[in-house]
Amino acid sequence: MPDCILESVSVAERTVDFVAVLVMAGSGERLGAGVPKAFVMLGGLPLWRHSANTLASLPGCRQVVLVVPADRVARTVGETQDFPVPVRVVPGGARRQDSVGMGLGAATARATVVAIHDAARPMLSRETALAVIREASRSGAALAAVPVRDTLKRVRADGTVESTLDRASLWQAQTPQAFRVEVARAAHAEAARQGLEATDDAALVEALGLSPVHVVRGDPWNFKVTEKPDLEVAEMLLARAGGTP
Ligand code: CTP
Ligand code: MG
Fold first, then answer.
1. Which ligand 1 atom minimizes the distance to the CA of 121?
2. pTM here?
3. Rounded distance, CA 242 to CA 245, Å?
4. Fold for domain 5-238?
5. pLDDT 10s digits, 107-144
6. Does the Cβ of 126 fall within 6 Å of ligand 1?
Protein backbone atom coordinates (compact mmCIF):
# COMPACT_ATOMS: atom_id res chain seq x y z
CA MET A 1 0.00 0.00 0.00
CA PRO A 2 1.47 3.43 -0.88
CA ASP A 3 2.51 5.62 2.06
CA CYS A 4 -0.03 8.34 1.27
CA ILE A 5 -2.91 5.89 1.77
CA LEU A 6 -1.53 4.68 5.08
CA GLU A 7 -1.22 8.28 6.22
CA SER A 8 -4.76 9.22 5.22
CA VAL A 9 -6.13 6.23 7.13
CA SER A 10 -4.30 7.21 10.32
CA VAL A 11 -5.41 10.85 10.01
CA ALA A 12 -9.04 9.80 9.52
CA GLU A 13 -8.95 7.64 12.62
CA ARG A 14 -7.05 10.03 14.87
CA THR A 15 -8.70 10.48 18.28
CA VAL A 16 -9.92 14.03 18.84
CA ASP A 17 -10.16 15.28 22.44
CA PHE A 18 -13.58 16.81 23.01
CA VAL A 19 -15.99 18.05 25.64
CA ALA A 20 -19.67 17.18 25.17
CA VAL A 21 -22.20 19.84 26.13
CA LEU A 22 -25.65 18.34 26.38
CA VAL A 23 -28.44 20.92 26.51
CA MET A 24 -31.51 19.69 28.35
CA ALA A 25 -32.88 22.74 30.16
CA GLY A 26 -35.98 23.22 27.99
CA SER A 27 -39.48 22.69 29.34
CA GLY A 28 -40.76 20.45 26.56
CA GLU A 29 -43.97 22.36 26.06
CA ARG A 30 -44.87 20.71 22.74
CA LEU A 31 -44.42 17.22 24.20
CA GLY A 32 -46.61 18.21 27.14
CA ALA A 33 -45.43 15.34 29.36
CA GLY A 34 -45.75 17.23 32.64
CA VAL A 35 -41.97 16.98 33.22
CA PRO A 36 -39.18 18.63 31.21
CA LYS A 37 -38.68 16.66 28.00
CA ALA A 38 -35.18 15.37 28.80
CA PHE A 39 -36.48 13.67 31.94
CA VAL A 40 -39.28 11.71 30.31
CA MET A 41 -38.63 7.97 30.52
CA LEU A 42 -37.62 6.25 27.27
CA GLY A 43 -36.65 2.59 27.06
CA GLY A 44 -36.27 2.43 30.85
CA LEU A 45 -33.95 5.46 31.10
CA PRO A 46 -34.47 9.22 31.29
CA LEU A 47 -34.41 10.47 27.70
CA TRP A 48 -31.21 12.51 28.20
CA ARG A 49 -29.28 9.46 29.31
CA HIS A 50 -29.28 7.83 25.85
CA SER A 51 -27.22 10.46 24.01
CA ALA A 52 -25.18 11.18 27.17
CA ASN A 53 -24.11 7.52 27.28
CA THR A 54 -23.24 7.58 23.58
CA LEU A 55 -21.12 10.74 23.84
CA ALA A 56 -19.41 9.80 27.13
CA SER A 57 -18.30 6.44 25.74
CA LEU A 58 -16.68 7.80 22.57
CA PRO A 59 -12.90 7.79 22.29
CA GLY A 60 -11.55 11.26 23.12
CA CYS A 61 -14.38 12.34 25.44
CA ARG A 62 -12.74 14.32 28.26
CA GLN A 63 -15.81 15.72 30.04
CA VAL A 64 -19.59 15.84 29.77
CA VAL A 65 -21.45 19.03 30.74
CA LEU A 66 -25.16 18.61 31.42
CA VAL A 67 -27.18 21.82 31.22
CA VAL A 68 -30.41 21.19 33.12
CA PRO A 69 -33.40 23.11 34.51
CA ALA A 70 -32.28 25.00 37.64
CA ASP A 71 -34.44 22.89 39.96
CA ARG A 72 -32.97 19.63 38.60
CA VAL A 73 -29.26 20.26 39.24
CA ALA A 74 -28.92 18.36 42.53
CA ARG A 75 -31.06 15.45 41.41
CA THR A 76 -29.16 15.08 38.14
CA VAL A 77 -25.78 15.14 39.90
CA GLY A 78 -27.01 12.13 41.86
CA GLU A 79 -27.61 10.27 38.59
CA THR A 80 -24.14 10.76 37.15
CA GLN A 81 -21.97 8.73 39.52
CA ASP A 82 -21.52 5.88 37.04
CA PHE A 83 -20.22 7.95 34.10
CA PRO A 84 -16.86 6.89 32.59
CA VAL A 85 -15.69 10.55 32.33
CA PRO A 86 -15.92 13.63 34.61
CA VAL A 87 -19.38 15.24 34.54
CA ARG A 88 -20.48 18.77 35.45
CA VAL A 89 -24.13 19.66 35.92
CA VAL A 90 -25.13 23.32 35.58
CA PRO A 91 -28.40 25.24 35.32
CA GLY A 92 -29.53 26.48 31.90
CA GLY A 93 -31.04 29.76 30.76
CA ALA A 94 -34.25 31.09 29.22
CA ARG A 95 -33.29 30.37 25.58
CA ARG A 96 -31.42 27.40 24.16
CA GLN A 97 -28.63 29.79 23.20
CA ASP A 98 -28.31 30.87 26.85
CA SER A 99 -28.15 27.23 27.95
CA VAL A 100 -25.34 26.52 25.48
CA GLY A 101 -23.51 29.59 26.80
CA MET A 102 -23.79 28.24 30.36
CA GLY A 103 -22.51 24.87 29.17
CA LEU A 104 -19.50 26.40 27.44
CA GLY A 105 -18.74 28.34 30.61
CA ALA A 106 -18.69 25.09 32.58
CA ALA A 107 -16.52 23.16 30.10
CA THR A 108 -13.20 23.03 31.91
CA ALA A 109 -11.42 20.00 30.46
CA ARG A 110 -8.59 20.60 28.01
CA ALA A 111 -9.90 19.64 24.58
CA THR A 112 -9.63 20.62 20.93
CA VAL A 113 -13.34 20.42 20.17
CA VAL A 114 -16.64 21.01 21.92
CA ALA A 115 -19.61 18.96 20.70
CA ILE A 116 -22.98 20.54 21.49
CA HIS A 117 -25.95 18.19 21.42
CA ASP A 118 -29.68 18.43 22.11
CA ALA A 119 -30.58 15.82 24.70
CA ALA A 120 -33.89 15.71 22.83
CA ARG A 121 -32.14 13.61 20.13
CA PRO A 122 -31.73 10.30 21.98
CA MET A 123 -31.01 8.16 18.89
CA LEU A 124 -27.62 9.73 18.13
CA SER A 125 -25.25 7.15 16.68
CA ARG A 126 -21.57 6.85 17.57
CA GLU A 127 -20.68 7.11 13.87
CA THR A 128 -22.47 10.42 13.34
CA ALA A 129 -21.06 11.93 16.52
CA LEU A 130 -17.48 10.91 15.70
CA ALA A 131 -17.75 12.12 12.10
CA VAL A 132 -18.96 15.56 13.24
CA ILE A 133 -16.25 15.84 15.90
CA ARG A 134 -13.51 14.86 13.45
CA GLU A 135 -14.74 17.32 10.83
CA ALA A 136 -14.83 20.13 13.41
CA SER A 137 -11.27 19.35 14.44
CA ARG A 138 -10.20 19.47 10.79
CA SER A 139 -12.12 22.52 9.59
CA GLY A 140 -13.32 24.48 12.65
CA ALA A 141 -17.07 23.87 12.60
CA ALA A 142 -19.35 21.00 11.58
CA LEU A 143 -22.88 19.78 12.11
CA ALA A 144 -24.91 16.68 11.43
CA ALA A 145 -27.59 17.26 8.81
CA VAL A 146 -29.77 15.35 6.37
CA PRO A 147 -30.87 16.40 2.88
CA VAL A 148 -34.46 17.66 2.74
CA ARG A 149 -36.71 14.97 1.24
CA ASP A 150 -40.00 16.80 0.89
CA THR A 151 -40.80 19.74 -1.37
CA LEU A 152 -40.83 22.93 0.66
CA LYS A 153 -43.33 25.77 0.20
CA ARG A 154 -43.05 29.32 1.40
CA VAL A 155 -46.56 30.13 2.65
CA ARG A 156 -48.15 33.54 3.28
CA ALA A 157 -49.99 34.36 6.52
CA ASP A 158 -53.32 33.83 4.69
CA GLY A 159 -52.40 30.20 3.88
CA THR A 160 -51.68 30.66 0.16
CA VAL A 161 -48.40 29.50 -1.38
CA GLU A 162 -45.97 32.25 -2.24
CA SER A 163 -43.27 30.06 -3.79
CA THR A 164 -41.74 26.61 -3.99
CA LEU A 165 -38.16 26.33 -2.80
CA ASP A 166 -35.49 24.44 -4.68
CA ARG A 167 -34.75 21.65 -2.24
CA ALA A 168 -31.62 20.46 -4.06
CA SER A 169 -29.42 22.61 -1.85
CA LEU A 170 -31.45 22.35 1.36
CA TRP A 171 -30.42 20.30 4.39
CA GLN A 172 -32.11 19.87 7.75
CA ALA A 173 -29.78 20.78 10.58
CA GLN A 174 -29.43 18.38 13.50
CA THR A 175 -27.06 18.13 16.42
CA PRO A 176 -24.33 17.40 17.35
CA GLN A 177 -22.79 20.63 16.19
CA ALA A 178 -19.11 20.65 16.97
CA PHE A 179 -16.53 23.42 16.90
CA ARG A 180 -12.95 24.03 17.78
CA VAL A 181 -13.30 25.26 21.35
CA GLU A 182 -12.07 28.78 20.55
CA VAL A 183 -14.59 29.10 17.68
CA ALA A 184 -17.54 28.13 19.90
CA ARG A 185 -16.45 30.44 22.71
CA ALA A 186 -15.90 33.38 20.35
CA ALA A 187 -19.28 32.79 18.64
CA HIS A 188 -21.24 32.81 21.89
CA ALA A 189 -19.34 35.72 23.44
CA GLU A 190 -19.69 37.84 20.32
CA ALA A 191 -23.38 36.92 19.87
CA ALA A 192 -24.05 38.01 23.46
CA ARG A 193 -22.18 41.27 22.85
CA GLN A 194 -24.06 42.03 19.62
CA GLY A 195 -27.45 40.72 20.78
CA LEU A 196 -27.39 38.18 17.95
CA GLU A 197 -29.94 35.35 18.25
CA ALA A 198 -30.08 32.02 16.44
CA THR A 199 -31.81 28.70 16.96
CA ASP A 200 -28.61 26.73 16.49
CA ASP A 201 -24.95 27.30 17.22
CA ALA A 202 -23.70 26.88 13.67
CA ALA A 203 -25.85 29.87 12.63
CA LEU A 204 -23.88 32.10 15.03
CA VAL A 205 -20.58 30.94 13.53
CA GLU A 206 -21.98 31.50 10.02
CA ALA A 207 -23.34 34.97 10.82
CA LEU A 208 -20.10 36.05 12.44
CA GLY A 209 -17.92 34.46 9.74
CA LEU A 210 -15.72 32.77 12.32
CA SER A 211 -15.14 29.55 10.38
CA PRO A 212 -16.46 27.69 7.37
CA VAL A 213 -19.25 25.40 8.59
CA HIS A 214 -19.34 21.89 7.12
CA VAL A 215 -22.31 19.55 7.08
CA VAL A 216 -21.73 15.89 7.82
CA ARG A 217 -24.42 13.60 6.50
CA GLY A 218 -26.24 12.27 9.55
CA ASP A 219 -29.09 9.84 9.61
CA PRO A 220 -32.86 10.24 9.89
CA TRP A 221 -32.92 8.29 13.18
CA ASN A 222 -31.27 11.26 14.84
CA PHE A 223 -34.58 13.14 14.91
CA LYS A 224 -35.56 15.47 17.72
CA VAL A 225 -38.25 14.25 20.08
CA THR A 226 -40.60 17.21 19.85
CA GLU A 227 -44.17 15.89 20.07
CA LYS A 228 -45.77 12.73 21.42
CA PRO A 229 -45.56 10.63 18.22
CA ASP A 230 -41.78 11.21 18.14
CA LEU A 231 -41.49 9.64 21.58
CA GLU A 232 -43.52 6.65 20.43
CA VAL A 233 -41.28 6.17 17.38
CA ALA A 234 -38.14 6.42 19.55
CA GLU A 235 -39.61 3.85 21.94
CA MET A 236 -40.25 1.43 19.05
CA LEU A 237 -36.80 1.91 17.54
CA LEU A 238 -35.08 1.33 20.87
CA ALA A 239 -37.13 -1.79 21.51
CA ARG A 240 -36.12 -3.11 18.09
CA ALA A 241 -32.45 -2.30 18.68
CA GLY A 242 -32.46 -3.94 22.12
CA GLY A 243 -32.11 -0.67 24.06
CA THR A 244 -29.11 0.99 22.41
CA PRO A 245 -29.35 3.60 19.68
N1 CTP B 1 -33.02 23.74 25.61
C2 CTP B 1 -32.26 24.23 26.68
N3 CTP B 1 -32.57 25.43 27.24
C4 CTP B 1 -33.63 26.15 26.80
C5 CTP B 1 -34.40 25.67 25.71
C6 CTP B 1 -34.07 24.45 25.13
O7 CTP B 1 -31.32 23.57 27.10
N8 CTP B 1 -33.91 27.30 27.39
C9 CTP B 1 -32.70 22.42 25.05
C10 CTP B 1 -33.85 21.42 25.19
O11 CTP B 1 -33.84 20.83 26.48
C12 CTP B 1 -33.60 20.47 24.05
C13 CTP B 1 -32.89 21.32 23.01
O14 CTP B 1 -32.50 22.53 23.66
O15 CTP B 1 -32.77 19.37 24.42
C16 CTP B 1 -33.76 21.61 21.81
O17 CTP B 1 -34.88 22.41 22.20
P18 CTP B 1 -36.40 22.00 22.00
O19 CTP B 1 -36.53 20.75 21.22
O20 CTP B 1 -37.13 23.23 21.56
O21 CTP B 1 -36.82 21.59 23.50
P22 CTP B 1 -37.79 22.35 24.50
O23 CTP B 1 -37.51 23.82 24.43
O24 CTP B 1 -37.65 21.67 25.81
O25 CTP B 1 -39.23 22.02 23.88
P26 CTP B 1 -40.43 23.04 23.55
O27 CTP B 1 -39.86 24.05 22.57
O28 CTP B 1 -41.50 22.19 22.98
O29 CTP B 1 -40.81 23.68 24.86
MG1 MG C 1 -37.86 24.96 22.55
1. 15
2. 0.93
3. 9
4. Spore Coat Polysaccharide Biosynthesis Protein SpsA; Chain A (3.90.550)
5. 999 999 999 999 999 999 999 999 999 999 999 999 99
6. no
